[in-house]
Amino acid sequence: MRRLSCWNMYKKMRKINIPIFVSHQGCPHQCSFCNQKTITGSGDAVTPHQVRKAIEAALETAPRAPVQTEVAFFGGSFTAIDAKLQEALLGAAKPFLDSGAVHGIRLSTRPDCIDDVVVERLLRYGVTSVELGVQSSDAEVITMNKRGHTFEDVKGAFSLLRAAGFEVGLQMMLGLYGSTREKDIQTARDIAALKPDTTRIYPTVVLEGSPLCDLYRKGEYVPLTLEQAVDIAAAAYTIFKENGVRVLRMGLMASDTLSDGCVAGPQHPAFGELVLSRLYLYKMRRALEGKNGGEFTFYVHPSQVSQALGNKKENKTRIFREQGVNIRVKPHETVESGEILW
Ligand code: SF4
Fold this sequence. Notes:
This protein is an alpha/beta fold. It folds into two domains: 3-269, TIM Barrel; 287-341, no CATH class. It contains 13 helices and 13 strands. The strands form four sheets. It has a seven-stranded parallel sheet with strand order 2-3-4-5-6-7-9. A two-stranded antiparallel ribbon has the order 1-13. α2 (48-61) packs parallel to α3, α7 (181-194) packs parallel to α9 and α9 crosses α11. The protein binds iron/sulfur cluster.
């Protein structure tokens, strides 16, 4: 059997996040694509009491088996909110960290809201992981989407966080206003060059109430199709894989609130699966180069037969349409996740 190298590191080890959504409060900006109220389902400020209750409730139902449990402050720019509130929220989570009930505290924020004072605060409260919203490395795209920071800010914040010993994640978006496939792929390259620990790849969707929604309704912004977004995400994923950057997520969470607020764009509840399937398609095409007609059998990890065949067997159908080859995909215990043998 022949093999193409493994790139599937998207499947992660057993981890549980206890999500605490911090709304738009304190963020001094209004990015084109952002409607935090839509994403978090609430514009109200979260309180330390709610943090404690959310952690206690999650721990009560957490599986007994060994898992890595983390409190995750997501949904806003955590270090942009009032310093006293940051301390109160982190202070509500820290006792669970100190007692060993949870194993880490992670949060997301803006690159220009990290400095020495912030870093010292995050260290003091035991924060283990910080994710920065990079979104694009292209100066024009950053400006057009009113991010209010530069890629230099990303590099500066990344250095500070790295030097302090945090796990650092850099998130990117595909298909922003003014972006192109090339600019998105360059962003993936620029992020990978910094060697962050993790990344998340989010396709841009149009949220009701966001400035992007106005541009969309005026015909000035055309979102990516699902097909385009999957293709670009597959290229970005490959760049991250080749550079040892763990991809934590591809695609937005399909919460009901998001579905209600999503006006247009490549939103799909299994976006990540579509991307991984697409990577199988590309590999199969490479393996079948020059072939026309007949049958061909590929072997994959037993858990990934349907992923290799594609959503509604799309990969099988495409290859038959393109080359007349009838592919079969079979499980094989010796094939590692993401590998393909034939
Ligand atoms: S920085 Fe984050 S919270 Fe603030 S407007 Fe932009 S996306 Fe929304």
